[in-house]
Specification:
It is built from 17 helices and eight strands. By secondary structure, the chain is an alpha+beta fold. It has a five-stranded mixed sheet with strand order 2-8-7-4-5, with no helix packed on it. Strands 1-3-6 form a three-stranded antiparallel sheet, with no helix packed on it.
Length: 366
Amino acid sequence: MADALKDSLYSPAFIEDLGKALVAVYPSFDQGQYRQQIYDEQWSARALKQRTRHVTTVVHNLLPTAYRAALNVLQAAAPHLSHYSYAPIFMPDFVEVYGLDDWEASLPALAYFTQFSSSEFAVRPFILRDPTRMMAQMRAWAKDPNHHVRRLASEGCRPRLPWGMALQAFKHDPTPILPILEELKDDPEEYVRRSVANNLNDIAKDHPDIVIEVLRQWQKSASTARQWIIKHALRTLLKQGHSEALGLLGYGNQAEVVVRDFRLDAVSVAMGNTITFRFTLESTASEPQDVMLDYVVYYNKANGRPAPKVFKLSTFQLGAGEARHFERRVSFRPISTRVYYAGTHRITLQINGVEQEGATFELTEQ
């Protein structure tokens, strides 16, 4: 999957279109040297981010030596590549690599380039270099008319941005991030609001109390869109059964239910196949109640120890005395984000954050 992604994003078509775009705005650009240097002996073996940095380096070698002159070429070329979504990310990467000592030129360039790909990774070295100055810029970007730039204000300072360098200072103290999220909590673009939720979810992994307090304030007169942010920002805490997070969404009370007939359809499953669990959930309450229903798979790890992973199953209102039947398959087909190991596994239920019934089974090689 990873190989397919890097080949589709940095496809021969993109490499060719990039060369054409550069020569269109900078006639001295040597397309022959460009192709030769791009497709070196290591090209096929490079991972996605390694290809990004390689393109950055090759283009730098063939543009004017002066940073601002090279930056002008890239800014002129960017609109020629607007039909590509990710691959032009080498442009903000160019700023990250060669522009850390020229903030006056680099910061406007990052705001410009993010409109063609994303500058979320490239801003992070600037934050590390001078967090006070850069976060002031991010707060200004949070008010920008362009929604891509507003998203950059949030996404770029996520403490735990996937694929990006961690911002250890913000993992320790996320306070500088909060004014940005406050500004963007009611942004008209879902693209921006999703980033706000993801940023808060990052913060919650280190500072759940801060996130709970922020979201408690946000709940007051919250719109439907802001309510979505609150729920999405709490997703990690909800999976952990965090009582205050559950309480914010109305699932703070232990559910008055019984689980009946929890069973698996097999006592063992081979790698590459699926196993199904079934059960009935019955209310013992005299009034309707809100239920958040998850299930936990305890995967056997290489060291023989179980590692739980929580999955969402359903949220619903269960009527007084009502019973509902559920059925779910758990797959052990190969995926890029998880390695399976043979041995004993377990599936349990988690209802309003409280772990309950479960059953074990064996995962076999064949």
